[in-house]
Amino acid sequence: MNNFTYHVPESPLEAANQKTSDRHAQFIAGGTNLVDRLKVFLDKPSQLIDISKLDLQTIETMADGSLRLGALVTNTAVADNQDIRRHYPMLARAILSGASQQIRNMATVGGNLLQRTRCPYYYDTAFPCNKREPETDCPAIEGMNRNHAILGSSDHCVAVHPSDMCVALAALDAEVEVISPQGTRQIAFLDFHRLPGNRPEKDSNLEQGELITGVKIPDTSKNSSGVYLKIRDRASYSFALVSVAASVSLEGEKIEGVRLALGGVAHKPWRATETEEFLIGKSLEENTLTQAAEIALQDAKPLSQNHFKVELAKRAIIRALKVSAQGGGVV
Ligand code: SF4
């Protein structure tokens, strides 16, 4: 760990001003990913701005019926919230499928959005890595890539985003609120994270100095039958090979609303909008679900070791849609 100075701001704006004035400063809240990176010199901040005590720790229902999660609400508090369990169960289940209870007690909403990939080459400084050091190399493309992307990757990076919570937030059409010295702005969740392109070192579209203050989930995305299905190598404390956040609402026999997002397959949470459009107005027949899954994976470009993810994702989509249509619950 390198030497750094330590600053405790009294307001979100002061925190953003402090970060703007020092481009090598970093925010710290729960520290569940940052401290790991500090220990192995992946991140070498000049300054840590400790935002953990700022007043961003509440879950509120807004006048328009939306739910606002303060950026410093812990993952445990979100997953335990009764309104979230009732109205946005895919979000609670996504969080509970990730990490351990101890980590969820420390990890925050804002930090979850900003956690970095778990690609092993990124953490091992004996290897080059375009995400860690631009214009070096991506050894995963020809190397160990079993856990890597099958959608939206580039010749520069094939990493996946590790979050479970973000997959549910992508499906729920959440919005990210940020503050900077220039004011506040809202970023649609699907625009928050980036595909790697030729700038894999940049995970999100946050600008220098911007601080996440909250995440808003619209009232219209309430669905008590929403599900989160996570497929992984072991039953707990493991990142997704493939995950699916899905909710289906029926009008009689026909699908009148559907939300579908995938995790473990791309550099960002992957919303399957074309599949959603295909399903609207159709009935839940096996053939229809099979076609829907094919559409979701039609652009997949698997790597040498992860062809299995394509079929796995298709089957997971079908299962998650069926369970949600039957009323939800544990998948
Ligand atoms: Fe680095 Fe991305 Fe390649 Fe992993 S996949 S080695 S994070 S550039």
Automatic annotation (TrEMBL):
<dbReference type="InterPro" id="IPR005107">
    <property type="entry name" value="CO_DH_flav_C"/>
</dbReference>
<dbReference type="Pfam" id="PF00941">
    <property type="entry name" value="FAD_binding_5"/>
</dbReference>
<dbReference type="InterPro" id="IPR016169">
    <property type="entry name" value="FAD-bd_PCMH_sub2"/>
</dbReference>
<dbReference type="InterPro" id="IPR036683">
    <property type="entry name" value="CO_DH_flav_C_dom_sf"/>
</dbReference>
<dbReference type="InterPro" id="IPR016167">
    <property type="entry name" value="FAD-bd_PCMH_sub1"/>
</dbReference>
<dbReference type="InterPro" id="IPR016166">
    <property type="entry name" value="FAD-bd_PCMH"/>
</dbReference>
<dbReference type="InterPro" id="IPR002346">
    <property type="entry name" value="Mopterin_DH_FAD-bd"/>
</dbReference>
<dbReference type="GO" id="GO:0071949">
    <property type="term" value="F:FAD binding"/>
</dbReference>
<feature type="domain" description="FAD-binding PCMH-type">
    <location>
        <begin position="1"/>
        <end position="222"/>
    </location>
</feature>
<dbReference type="Pfam" id="PF03450">
    <property type="entry name" value="CO_deh_flav_C"/>
</dbReference>
<keyword id="KW-0560">Oxidoreductase</keyword>
<dbReference type="GO" id="GO:0016491">
    <property type="term" value="F:oxidoreductase activity"/>
</dbReference>
<dbReference type="InterPro" id="IPR036318">
    <property type="entry name" value="FAD-bd_PCMH-like_sf"/>
</dbReference>
<dbReference type="InterPro" id="IPR051312">
    <property type="entry name" value="Diverse_Substr_Oxidored"/>
</dbReference>
<protein>
    <submittedName>
        <fullName>Oxidoreductase, molybdopterin-binding subunit</fullName>
    </submittedName>
</protein>
